[in-house]
Amino acid sequence: MRNRFAEELLEIASGDEKIILLAGDIGFRIFDKFIEKYPHRFINCGIAEQNMISIAAGMASEGMRPVVYTIIPFLVMRAFEQIRVDIGINAQPVILVGVGGGLAYDKLGSTHHAYEDVSLMRTIPNMKLFTPYDPKDTAKCLLESYKEAKINGLPSYIRLSKGGEENLPIQKEITTNIHFLKSKQPTCNLFITHGSIASIVLKSLQSEEYHHVSLISISELSQPSLIEMINFLKKHQDYLNQVTIVEETFAPGGLHEALTSLLSKLCIPIFLKHIKIDHKYIFDIDTRENLLQKYGIDSTKIKEIASKN
Predict the structure, then answer these.
(1) Most buried pick, 48, 63, 102, 169, via CB within 10 A?
(2) What's this model's pTM, rounded to 2 decimal places?
(3) Contacts of 261 (CB under 8 A, 6+ apart)
């Protein structure tokens, strides 16, 4: 994901001299080509993320198109006041890119885990929120963020994993940001996910015994895309015996809560099951896969729900 993001950013920057990349003392290897080609359009702000957000907001106010990149806890949690005030309240079209969604930085411990970022960023009015599920989707989300900044003057937050994911096969596109990854139509047992956890969910459902199961990934958690998801569920509710949300976040403020709230508000009688990270800080030092299994996103649990018609 990180490499594909860097490639797409370089391509966008080649056609827009207003693109400026700011980094929090990370990412030098993936940005080597960008720095070599545009040395005066790269700023290493150091480990001073709050200041980096304010710099980016100031640049945006002068017509530049800043892209900010660093590890999620230091981008979102550490600098949230600056995101809220300098970008949100002052309506500056900054593109924020956080790396390490969920438990991607597994062995670096709880300070580097990102369970709360989706919830926090959803509270900023007009903030476009993207959680791409693979490298190809990452490029698409960055291009959408760029267009939102350039055309509509809106800020964006893109949540990336750490890297290494392969592109997933799209079976059918429902909308620009909602795709079937398994099956080409809704089945009685439907899973919905977002972000890089999609690859783990898809792998869990590959067996032929889950032929009756469909899987959808949604790449944007902003209101228009959520409404599109609700309209899709409403249209097909007669077919749906069971709908399960799987997300690599805490429950509060995540996709499950967002969709459940909208379903309730619109009086649509669809109950959503939920598989997510347990609402606790994780202090174990282990692989991402093992931590997910231990703290809520268990493939056994996914398969157990998938086995039901």
Answers:
(1) 102
(2) 0.96
(3) none
